[in-house]
Amino acid sequence: MSDRLRILLQHLLPKQRLTTIAGRIAGAEGGLMTTRLIRWFIGRYGVDMNEAENPDIFSYRSFNEFFTRPLRLGTRPLASADFVCPVDGAISQFGAIDDHHILQAKGHRFTITELIGGDAALAAHFRHGSFANLYLSPKDYHRLHMPCDGKLTRMIYVPGTLFSVNPATARGVPNLFARNERVVCVFDSPDCGPFVMVLVGATIVGSMATVWHGVVNPKRTNKVSEWSYADQNIVLKKGEEMGRFLLGSTIVMLFKKEAVIFNEEWTPERRVRLGEFMGNRLGSGPIKMVAR
After folding, report:
1. Both ends of the chain: CA-CA distance in Å?
2. In the predicted model, what is the mean pLDDT of the chain?
3. SS3 for 22?
4. Residues of 71-100 as b/e, b for ≥16 C-beta within 10 angstroms?
5. Is the separation of the CB atoms in 19 and 205 below 8 Å?
6. H-helix or E-strand spanning residue 164
7. Whole-number Cα distances in Å, 3 to 108, 164, 212
8. For residues 238 and 81, what is the distance between their CA atoms, to the nearest angstrom?
9. Could you report the per-residue pLDDT of 179-228, keeping only the tens digit for each?
10. Which of 88, 98, 246, 289 can pair with 141 through a Cys bridge, CB separation 3.0 to 4.6 Å?
11. Do the strands 150-158 and 225-228 form a parallel or antiparallel pair, or are they unpaired?
12. Which entry of 62, 100, 140, 145 is annotated as an active-site residue?
Protein backbone atom coordinates (compact mmCIF):
# COMPACT_ATOMS: atom_id res chain seq x y z
CA MET A 1 0.00 0.00 0.00
CA SER A 2 1.37 3.42 -0.93
CA ASP A 3 2.01 6.13 1.67
CA ARG A 4 -0.61 8.30 0.00
CA LEU A 5 -3.30 5.62 0.31
CA ARG A 6 -2.37 4.92 3.95
CA ILE A 7 -2.78 8.59 4.80
CA LEU A 8 -6.09 8.82 2.92
CA LEU A 9 -7.42 5.89 4.95
CA GLN A 10 -6.39 7.65 8.16
CA HIS A 11 -8.45 10.67 7.16
CA LEU A 12 -11.47 8.42 6.58
CA LEU A 13 -11.22 6.08 9.59
CA PRO A 14 -12.98 6.90 12.90
CA LYS A 15 -9.70 7.37 14.80
CA GLN A 16 -11.20 8.32 18.17
CA ARG A 17 -13.53 5.32 18.18
CA LEU A 18 -10.77 2.91 17.13
CA THR A 19 -8.53 4.31 19.86
CA THR A 20 -11.24 3.87 22.51
CA ILE A 21 -11.81 0.26 21.47
CA ALA A 22 -8.08 -0.49 21.38
CA GLY A 23 -7.68 1.06 24.83
CA ARG A 24 -10.38 -1.17 26.28
CA ILE A 25 -8.84 -4.30 24.76
CA ALA A 26 -5.35 -3.35 25.95
CA GLY A 27 -6.59 -2.71 29.50
CA ALA A 28 -8.70 -5.86 29.78
CA GLU A 29 -7.54 -8.80 31.90
CA GLY A 30 -8.43 -11.49 29.39
CA GLY A 31 -6.52 -14.49 30.68
CA LEU A 32 -5.55 -16.84 27.85
CA MET A 33 -6.79 -14.37 25.21
CA THR A 34 -4.45 -11.71 26.62
CA THR A 35 -1.53 -14.16 26.54
CA ARG A 36 -2.30 -15.05 22.92
CA LEU A 37 -2.41 -11.37 21.99
CA ILE A 38 0.95 -10.78 23.69
CA ARG A 39 2.52 -13.81 21.98
CA TRP A 40 1.25 -12.64 18.58
CA PHE A 41 2.56 -9.12 19.18
CA ILE A 42 6.03 -10.38 20.18
CA GLY A 43 6.23 -12.49 17.02
CA ARG A 44 4.82 -9.80 14.74
CA TYR A 45 7.14 -7.01 15.90
CA GLY A 46 10.20 -8.91 17.10
CA VAL A 47 10.06 -7.81 20.74
CA ASP A 48 13.16 -8.86 22.74
CA MET A 49 11.79 -10.23 26.00
CA ASN A 50 15.31 -11.05 27.22
CA GLU A 51 15.59 -7.36 28.15
CA ALA A 52 12.42 -7.39 30.23
CA GLU A 53 12.56 -7.47 34.00
CA ASN A 54 9.89 -10.16 33.75
CA PRO A 55 10.18 -12.26 30.54
CA ASP A 56 7.25 -14.57 31.46
CA ILE A 57 4.41 -13.59 29.12
CA PHE A 58 1.90 -15.69 31.09
CA SER A 59 2.33 -13.43 34.13
CA TYR A 60 1.00 -10.26 32.45
CA ARG A 61 -2.64 -9.70 33.36
CA SER A 62 -3.31 -7.22 30.56
CA PHE A 63 -1.71 -6.14 27.31
CA ASN A 64 -1.00 -2.72 28.81
CA GLU A 65 0.91 -4.35 31.66
CA PHE A 66 3.05 -6.18 29.11
CA PHE A 67 3.44 -3.15 26.84
CA THR A 68 4.73 -0.90 29.63
CA ARG A 69 6.95 -3.61 31.13
CA PRO A 70 10.11 -2.40 32.93
CA LEU A 71 13.57 -3.33 31.67
CA ARG A 72 15.96 -5.67 33.41
CA LEU A 73 18.41 -3.76 35.64
CA GLY A 74 21.60 -2.84 33.80
CA THR A 75 20.27 -3.13 30.24
CA ARG A 76 20.43 0.63 29.62
CA PRO A 77 23.58 2.20 31.10
CA LEU A 78 23.56 5.99 31.24
CA ALA A 79 26.23 7.97 29.42
CA SER A 80 28.02 10.42 31.71
CA ALA A 81 26.87 13.21 29.42
CA ASP A 82 24.87 16.33 30.19
CA PHE A 83 21.91 15.00 28.19
CA VAL A 84 20.97 11.37 27.58
CA CYS A 85 18.42 9.90 25.20
CA PRO A 86 15.12 9.52 27.09
CA VAL A 87 13.69 6.58 25.10
CA ASP A 88 14.30 3.60 22.89
CA GLY A 89 13.21 4.54 19.39
CA ALA A 90 14.33 6.30 16.24
CA ILE A 91 15.15 9.91 15.42
CA SER A 92 12.48 11.56 13.27
CA GLN A 93 14.18 14.97 13.14
CA PHE A 94 16.36 17.06 15.44
CA GLY A 95 18.46 20.20 15.41
CA ALA A 96 18.02 23.97 15.60
CA ILE A 97 14.63 25.64 15.84
CA ASP A 98 14.33 28.06 12.91
CA ASP A 99 13.16 31.15 14.81
CA HIS A 100 10.00 29.48 16.13
CA HIS A 101 9.53 26.71 13.53
CA ILE A 102 10.25 23.03 14.17
CA LEU A 103 11.01 20.63 11.31
CA GLN A 104 8.59 17.69 11.13
CA ALA A 105 9.72 16.24 7.79
CA LYS A 106 10.86 17.57 4.44
CA GLY A 107 8.34 20.22 3.43
CA HIS A 108 6.51 20.26 6.78
CA ARG A 109 7.11 22.54 9.76
CA PHE A 110 5.04 23.62 12.74
CA THR A 111 5.49 26.33 15.35
CA ILE A 112 6.47 25.98 18.99
CA THR A 113 3.29 27.82 20.02
CA GLU A 114 1.10 25.38 18.07
CA LEU A 115 2.87 22.39 19.60
CA ILE A 116 2.47 23.45 23.22
CA GLY A 117 -1.16 24.49 22.96
CA GLY A 118 -1.05 28.23 22.25
CA ASP A 119 1.06 29.60 25.12
CA ALA A 120 3.16 32.25 23.34
CA ALA A 121 4.99 33.27 26.53
CA LEU A 122 6.20 29.72 27.14
CA ALA A 123 7.07 29.28 23.47
CA ALA A 124 9.26 32.40 23.55
CA HIS A 125 11.79 30.60 25.79
CA PHE A 126 12.63 28.22 22.93
CA ARG A 127 12.91 30.56 19.94
CA HIS A 128 16.18 29.78 18.11
CA GLY A 129 16.64 26.87 20.51
CA SER A 130 16.91 23.14 19.80
CA PHE A 131 14.45 20.28 19.34
CA ALA A 132 14.40 16.50 18.94
CA ASN A 133 11.50 14.36 17.69
CA LEU A 134 11.89 10.69 18.67
CA TYR A 135 9.54 7.99 17.36
CA LEU A 136 8.74 4.87 19.39
CA SER A 137 7.79 1.91 17.21
CA PRO A 138 5.55 -0.91 18.50
CA LYS A 139 8.51 -3.14 19.43
CA ASP A 140 10.25 -0.50 21.55
CA TYR A 141 10.38 -0.12 25.31
CA HIS A 142 7.63 2.39 26.09
CA ARG A 143 8.59 4.05 29.32
CA LEU A 144 9.95 7.59 29.03
CA HIS A 145 12.87 8.88 31.07
CA MET A 146 14.50 12.21 31.85
CA PRO A 147 17.23 13.55 29.51
CA CYS A 148 18.67 15.60 32.38
CA ASP A 149 17.74 16.69 35.91
CA GLY A 150 14.57 18.75 36.03
CA LYS A 151 11.99 20.22 38.38
CA LEU A 152 8.42 19.94 37.11
CA THR A 153 6.62 23.28 36.87
CA ARG A 154 3.59 22.72 34.63
CA MET A 155 1.68 20.11 32.65
CA ILE A 156 -0.68 20.95 29.78
CA TYR A 157 -3.09 18.54 28.09
CA VAL A 158 -3.83 19.63 24.51
CA PRO A 159 -6.75 17.91 22.74
CA GLY A 160 -6.36 16.91 19.12
CA THR A 161 -6.83 14.27 16.51
CA LEU A 162 -5.15 10.85 16.54
CA PHE A 163 -3.26 10.27 13.31
CA SER A 164 -0.56 7.64 13.28
CA VAL A 165 2.89 9.12 13.94
CA ASN A 166 4.94 6.67 11.89
CA PRO A 167 7.52 8.09 9.42
CA ALA A 168 5.19 7.84 6.42
CA THR A 169 2.48 9.86 8.16
CA ALA A 170 5.03 12.42 9.37
CA ARG A 171 6.03 12.94 5.74
CA GLY A 172 2.44 13.23 4.52
CA VAL A 173 0.34 15.00 7.19
CA PRO A 174 1.13 18.71 7.80
CA ASN A 175 1.40 19.87 11.42
CA LEU A 176 1.14 16.27 12.61
CA PHE A 177 2.75 16.66 16.05
CA ALA A 178 0.95 19.97 16.67
CA ARG A 179 -2.31 18.42 15.47
CA ASN A 180 -2.50 15.21 17.48
CA GLU A 181 -3.55 14.95 21.12
CA ARG A 182 -0.57 15.61 23.39
CA VAL A 183 0.68 16.15 26.93
CA VAL A 184 3.18 18.99 27.43
CA CYS A 185 5.48 18.59 30.46
CA VAL A 186 7.43 21.72 31.41
CA PHE A 187 10.59 21.42 33.53
CA ASP A 188 13.25 23.73 34.85
CA SER A 189 16.85 22.55 34.99
CA PRO A 190 19.60 24.10 37.11
CA ASP A 191 22.00 23.58 34.17
CA CYS A 192 20.00 24.42 31.03
CA GLY A 193 16.98 26.41 32.23
CA PRO A 194 13.45 25.53 31.08
CA PHE A 195 12.88 22.56 28.79
CA VAL A 196 9.81 20.75 27.54
CA MET A 197 8.93 17.13 26.87
CA VAL A 198 5.82 16.66 24.73
CA LEU A 199 4.13 13.26 24.68
CA VAL A 200 2.29 13.00 21.36
CA GLY A 201 -0.72 10.70 21.10
CA ALA A 202 -1.59 8.62 18.04
CA THR A 203 -4.11 6.17 16.62
CA ILE A 204 -4.85 3.41 19.17
CA VAL A 205 -2.66 5.04 21.81
CA GLY A 206 -5.16 4.42 24.60
CA SER A 207 -3.60 6.94 26.97
CA MET A 208 -0.46 8.67 28.16
CA ALA A 209 0.69 8.68 31.77
CA THR A 210 3.22 10.46 33.98
CA VAL A 211 4.76 9.27 37.23
CA TRP A 212 3.39 12.25 39.18
CA HIS A 213 -0.16 12.20 37.80
CA GLY A 214 -0.99 8.79 36.36
CA VAL A 215 -3.08 8.64 33.20
CA VAL A 216 -3.42 12.16 31.72
CA ASN A 217 -6.36 11.80 29.37
CA PRO A 218 -9.23 13.91 30.70
CA LYS A 219 -12.63 13.28 29.15
CA ARG A 220 -11.92 14.10 25.52
CA THR A 221 -13.21 17.58 24.77
CA ASN A 222 -11.88 20.52 22.77
CA LYS A 223 -10.57 22.28 25.87
CA VAL A 224 -6.95 22.60 26.96
CA SER A 225 -6.37 21.44 30.57
CA GLU A 226 -3.47 22.65 32.71
CA TRP A 227 -1.88 21.74 36.05
CA SER A 228 0.59 23.91 37.96
CA TYR A 229 3.27 22.40 40.20
CA ALA A 230 4.89 25.67 41.28
CA ASP A 231 4.01 24.97 44.92
CA GLN A 232 5.39 21.41 44.83
CA ASN A 233 8.91 20.03 44.75
CA ILE A 234 8.68 17.37 42.04
CA VAL A 235 12.29 16.82 40.98
CA LEU A 236 13.34 14.02 38.64
CA LYS A 237 16.95 13.04 38.05
CA LYS A 238 18.57 12.29 34.72
CA GLY A 239 17.57 8.78 33.64
CA GLU A 240 14.59 8.53 36.00
CA GLU A 241 11.24 7.42 34.57
CA MET A 242 8.89 10.34 33.89
CA GLY A 243 6.03 8.70 31.99
CA ARG A 244 4.87 6.06 29.57
CA PHE A 245 2.76 5.46 26.48
CA LEU A 246 -0.01 2.88 26.53
CA LEU A 247 0.74 1.88 22.92
CA GLY A 248 3.39 3.64 20.86
CA SER A 249 3.93 7.21 19.76
CA THR A 250 6.41 10.12 19.61
CA ILE A 251 8.12 12.42 22.08
CA VAL A 252 9.22 15.97 21.18
CA MET A 253 11.81 17.79 23.30
CA LEU A 254 12.47 21.55 23.30
CA PHE A 255 15.53 23.30 24.74
CA LYS A 256 16.63 26.93 24.95
CA LYS A 257 19.15 28.47 22.60
CA GLU A 258 22.67 27.06 23.14
CA ALA A 259 21.43 24.73 25.89
CA VAL A 260 22.48 21.55 24.09
CA ILE A 261 24.97 20.50 21.42
CA PHE A 262 23.67 17.25 19.94
CA ASN A 263 25.69 14.08 19.47
CA GLU A 264 27.57 14.36 16.15
CA GLU A 265 26.59 10.76 15.32
CA TRP A 266 22.87 11.52 15.45
CA THR A 267 21.11 11.57 12.07
CA PRO A 268 17.42 11.37 11.05
CA GLU A 269 16.06 7.77 11.06
CA ARG A 270 18.95 6.56 13.24
CA ARG A 271 17.95 4.08 15.95
CA VAL A 272 18.58 5.31 19.50
CA ARG A 273 18.45 3.71 22.94
CA LEU A 274 17.59 4.98 26.35
CA GLY A 275 20.63 6.33 28.19
CA GLU A 276 22.92 6.85 25.21
CA PHE A 277 24.77 10.13 24.68
CA MET A 278 22.32 12.68 23.28
CA GLY A 279 24.24 15.90 23.83
CA ASN A 280 26.32 18.18 26.01
CA ARG A 281 26.41 21.77 27.12
CA LEU A 282 29.05 24.06 25.68
CA GLY A 283 32.49 23.23 27.06
CA SER A 284 31.67 19.79 28.52
CA GLY A 285 34.27 17.06 28.57
CA PRO A 286 34.48 13.51 27.11
CA ILE A 287 31.67 10.95 27.33
CA LYS A 288 31.74 7.85 29.53
CA MET A 289 29.16 5.16 30.34
CA VAL A 290 27.94 4.54 33.89
CA ALA A 291 26.01 1.52 35.11
CA ARG A 292 22.32 1.88 35.79
Report:
1. 42
2. 85
3. helix
4. eeeebbbbbebbbbbbbbbbbbbbeebeeb
5. yes
6. none
7. 16, 12, 38
8. 10
9. 788 899 999 998 889 999 999 887 555 578 999 999 887 666 678 899 99
10. 88
11. antiparallel
12. 145
Rounded Cα–Cα distance for residues 179 and 139 (Å): 24
Most confident of 63-72, 147-156, 222-231, 274-283: 147-156
**Would you call 145 a catalytic residue per the annotation?**
yes
pLDDT (average), residues 38-63: 94
CA distance 273 to 278: 10
CB 210 within 8 A of CB 86: no
Known catalytic residue at 99: no
Determine which one of 130, 164, 189, 249 is catalytic. 249
Contacts of 76 (CB under 8 A, 6+ apart): 88, 273, 274, 275, 292
Q: What is the predicted pLDDT for the residue at 163?
A: 56
CA distance 179 to 175: 6
User: Degrees (nearest 5) of the Cα angle 164, 215, 70?
Assistant: 80
Query: Catalytic residue among 62, 82, 88, 149, which?
Result: 88
**What's the Cα-to-Cα distance from 93 to each of 63, 199, 226, 259, rounded to whole Å?**
30, 15, 27, 18
pLDDT for residue 216: 86
Say whether 88 is catalytic: yes
Rounded to whole angstroms, how far apart are CA atoms 104 and 41?
29
Handedness of CA 70, 37, 164, 16 (dihedral sign): negative
pLDDT at 271 over 80: yes
